[in-house]
Design the sequence.
């Protein structure tokens, strides 16, 4: 087999993997949006069976031979990245036995069902045994991935954020926490911004959500918007879907959830078409992914400069919101409120939610924190960080979908995303001095145009650190984020 | 390996097949109801890849050994049926090479896309080259299935209706056609029944559709209703979905399309839970399937006895329809009109639509009718049978989805279903003398209760002929259907 033939065989195999990953993505989307409730057990079987097929393809014993033979081929940067990412994928997959991979997929589906019920009934005791089983499976996975060496948490984290380590994150996060705490202390005494008043029907909110997503550049030929309990985006290639949720007394949640998911979707949709289905296609890391969602949600949707345009769009669909003008809308959209829910948290507090989860899930995984003690540990830590205590588990440890699906090591990518979004916007403003004027007129195209070649199009061609270095000079840390928060929240609170 | 172990291995393997078939069903449903338009090419890749995986599982070389070894096991009737159906599935699958199976799946998706566009533009020339490619693949499939012997059409027909032959069908159909022609000749001079008048909003029609499906026993915990260009039902086990379509000037289409698909869904939902995922699970044949859809659509939904209940339900959702009472509603729901669309055809003409397609698709497959000549052949045959000529291809040869997906040999199962439904109702009325009184009060439960043990629960335990013989004394022919049509249409037209 020539080097070129080996490379072609590798690509063909990965196209098949990508096609079945797309199928798995549709099954997952359908489960959250469309599936009849009694179909859950059956769906768990389907997802488990498909995961087993994918595991078989990802661990195909011919892959190392193809990769080794293709090293001699005349490949460009993307082709070299195909070999690097194929080798990484194969290594990660072969370390996890097929029966464990299938058990994880099946348990994720079953545990998710238990979580949804427990959340609805605010009954953590109904969820914790399932979480304990899931943690046990994830520990086995971490052990298999790392070969028993190093921090098991790092082995899981690496799946979402290649090259990251919990110890290094903990250092950056410590500096970030100090900065956040200092900012919050200064905000604490300031008066709270008035919120939108009224009842905003679901249909009108969804129409606004669609208009806002379109304004960012989202295209219904390759996407759709549906309702879900916990909003998410899913898919890749030319079918990337977003979901949102509606509270009729709070128009901000639907709008900003939608912008968040739109950011995720625009990233996937922006990957160079030539990379689709290839190992070098898709997203570079979940931290990079979250940088895109947070950028559109907070640095466009909640920017002071964009407030005239967003406020106009909101009033066009929702009518009078009881907010006197763009400044009042901006203050309401960035209000620092004593809430409990991560997804509804303002930027000043959001990362404290993440740091809480980061510490708790490390303790859960290591076993230092038994699953049964989670509700109490959550509430105590929350009170220590935020100065208030959740009144029930639905606004405490049952609020997020992640752990129910076995996502351990995923939460820190949100804060990596916030740091990355701030760094990107800092550089974008330097490159585009007229940006704020465009945002004020509702012209968000300069943002997408700037992101596309730098972040979206390369997919996984560059390692994560190189992607950041090429785009903004260095991998992001807490500095740009803290500077951004100071610039936004100091004027809002007269600091 | 013991006989019991071999049987267990066989069942485990088939459960995995069933789980992936469920996944394929969701991909197909999503394509028709949710998928963004630009996702079609990618979806074709996913469906092709999943079809290849399923083909690999269905042709697993261990299957014949398991089946042979399990013959010595102590099995009940269902267990014996597992072995019979597993052997049939393996034989059918091994005869079709993997690359042909994948090409068929991929081409079905692509051709379907071409058809939808061609239908929208009423442009048969845009569709016929794709149909020609599809026919060529189906000929290769028929050749592979039959080993080159016998009628290639029978090889395809057998996939949908085990044991059926085109020659035998042609004899029954000739007698049916004579009876239908005689009935239509007598109806031809009678005045036409007035139709519903007004504009009936989509939301109200869908609410009626949901109420009607519920009245038949359909349960939203295991189902859902969506819109599709061509209504279909899909899924199995505890997730069986239906679709419908709405014309705001004609409330009958949505209502009766929904009842039709509800009948399909109730069949799948009624299979004994102990059979789910097993070779003996699922439906006995497509003719049996269609007998269920047509029974609920025509023998319940369009029955004179049920007209008071259905009319009341329709008016509750749609308001005044311009129909004076149950008799007028019944006449409108059974009007014999000079239409062109099979799915909108009345019972008196419906099977003439099928016999037309049966003859044309046999000629297309044999090559006697080149695909490029289809529009003219369709229009000529239609004019000969119905005395009128389609004005465009959307009401002619482009009206049905079937050929675009490669379904050749499927159409006759509709008429098998009509004959079966009539035979079932004949026997049900003998067993349940109070049936009509119950239908008139909107109590359809006796129908489902009678069908469940006789038709639904057995799945594939019995061969098709035995299922019919046990339920109604013999496999159905044209006699009960012609008697039913005479009993319904003679009074409606004063014959």
Sequence:
């Amino acid at each position: 087999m020539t080097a070129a033939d080996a490379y072609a065989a590798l690509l063909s195999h990965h196209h098949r993997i990508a096609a079945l990953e797309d199928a798995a993505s549709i099954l997952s989307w359908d489960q959250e949006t469309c599936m009849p409730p009694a179909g859950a057990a059956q769906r768990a079987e389907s997802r488990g069976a498909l995961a087993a097929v994918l595991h078989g393809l990802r661990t195909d014993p011919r892959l190392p031979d193809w990769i080794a033979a293709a090293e001699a081929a005349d490949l460009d940067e993307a082709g070299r990245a195909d070999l690097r990412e194929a080798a990484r994928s194969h290594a990660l997959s072969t370390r996890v036995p097929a029966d464990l991979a299938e058990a994880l997929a099946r348990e994720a589906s079953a545990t998710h069902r238990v979580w949804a019920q427990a959340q609805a009934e605010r009954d953590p005791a109904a969820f914790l045994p399932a979480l304990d089983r899931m943690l046990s499976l994830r520990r086995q996975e971490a052990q298999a991935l790392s070969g028993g060496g190093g921090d098991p948490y790092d082995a899981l984290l690496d799946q979402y954020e290649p090259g990251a380590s919990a110890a290094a994150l903990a250092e950056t996060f410590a500096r970030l926490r100090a900065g956040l705490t200092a900012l919050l202390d200064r905000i604490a005494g300031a008066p709270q911004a008035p919120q939108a008043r009224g009842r905003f029907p679901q249909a009108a909110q969804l129409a606004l959500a669609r208009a806002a997503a379109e304004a960012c550049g989202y295209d219904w030929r390759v996407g759709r918007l549906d309702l879900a309990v916990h909003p998410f985006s899913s898919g890749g290639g030319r079918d990337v879907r977003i979901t949102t949720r509606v509270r009729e007394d709070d128009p901000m949640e639907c709008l900003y959830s939608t912008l968040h998911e739109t950011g995720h979707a625009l990233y996937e949709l922006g990957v160079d078409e030539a990379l689709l289905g290839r190992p070098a296609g898709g997203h570079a890391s979940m931290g990079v992914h979250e940088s895109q969602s947070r950028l559109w949600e907070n640095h466009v949707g909640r920017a002071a400069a964009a407030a005239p345009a967003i406020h106009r769009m909101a009033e066009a669909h929702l009518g009078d919101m009881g907010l006197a003008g763009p400044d009042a809308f901006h203050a309401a959209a960035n209000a620092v409120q004593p809430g409990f829910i991560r997804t509804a948290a303002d930027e000043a507090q959001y990362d404290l939610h993440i740091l809480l989860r980061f510490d708790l899930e490390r303790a859960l995984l290591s076993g230092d924190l038994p699953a049964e003690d989670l509700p109490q540990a959550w509430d105590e830590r929350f009170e220590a960080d935020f100065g208030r205590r959740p009144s029930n588990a639905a606004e405490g440890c049952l609020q997020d979908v992640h752990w129910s699906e076995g996502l351990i090591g995923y939460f820190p990518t949100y804060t990596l995303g916030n740091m990355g979004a701030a760094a990107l916007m800092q550089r974008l403003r330097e490159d585009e001095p007229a940006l704020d004027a465009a945002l004020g007129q509702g012209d968000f195209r300069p943002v997408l145009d700037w992101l596309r070649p730098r972040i979206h199009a390369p997919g996984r061609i560059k390692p994560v650190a190189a992607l950041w270095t090429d785009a903004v000079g260095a991998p992001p840390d807490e500095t740009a984020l803290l500077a951004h928060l100071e610039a936004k929240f100091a004027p809002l609170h007269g600091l």
